Amino acid sequence: MSTQPAVRRWTYDEFARLPNDGNRYEIIEGELFVTPMPHPLHQKVVMRLGAALEAFCVAHDLGEVFAPIDVIFGEGDYLAPDIVFVLRDRIQVVTDRGAEAAPDLLIEVLSPKTAMRDRGLKRERYARFGVPEYWVVDTDRRRIERYRLHDDPGRAMEIADVALAWEPVPDGPVLTLNVADLLRDFR
């Protein structure tokens, strides 16, 4: 007889009925994760980064930026990254429910309660489901960790602690983010 607990299989309808009570709910590999809403400085970084990406994407007609929306990979995998970007020619993957296929860029701003999951389980799930690029914003270390998951999911991350250059389409426009400016309120 097994002593392992049974993993609950969540349908999207069950996930969608979870309460809107100020907590963030995610289902990863069938397991429910509940975290409190992020603190104000976390949200300030999300807003700054989202605004920079949005302005760049609108100026160059590249796609859409969302902060946050559900990312629905399949039964038992419903995640809620801080920022989601989808290229214009793939925008049909975004429905009323959220992104229903791998977005082109996912971004998480770390919090103490989610850091291990963001760097581990979530990065693994994003790679498995075909997300090409994933950033982890580490406010404590004042840096952005870039994972290029489409090249090699096991490849070492790139660390940007001064500037990060993002080129969402090959040979296209490049956005250079000033990391210190994005994280200026963190000490």
What would you say this structure looks like, in words?
With 187 residues, this protein is α+β, with helices and mostly antiparallel strands. The chain has 5 helices and 12 strands. A hairpin with a 2-residue loop joins strand 4 and strand 5 (77-79).
Provide a brief overview of the structure.
The protein is α+β, with helices and mostly antiparallel strands.
Notable traits:
single chain, about 190 residues, alpha+beta, tt1808, chain A, six-stranded mixed sheet, two-stranded antiparallel sheet
Topology (elements, then pairings):
Elements lengths: L11 H5 L6 E6 L2 E6 L3 H20 L3 E4 L4 E4 L2 E3 L3 E5 L17 E5 L5 H5 L1 H8 L4 E6 L4 E6 L9 E3 L2 E4 L8 E4 H4 L5
Parallel strand pairs: 7-8
Antiparallel strand pairs: 1-2, 3-6, 4-5, 6-7, 8-9, 9-10, 11-12
Quaternary status: single chain
Question: How many strands, which pairing sense, and closed or not: the largest β-sheet?
Answer: 6 strands, mixed
The tally of strands reads 12
Write down the domain tally: 1
Q: Strand order across the biggest sheet?
A: 3-6-7-8-9-10
Categorize the overall geometry: globular
Number of helices: 5
First-residue to last-residue Cα separation: 52 Å
Level-1 CATH class name = Alpha Beta
Can you tell me the CATH topology? tt1808, chain A
Order of helices and strands: HEEHEEEEEHHEEEEEH
Fraction of residues in H or I helices = 10-25%
Q: Which class best fits the helix and strand makeup?
A: alpha+beta
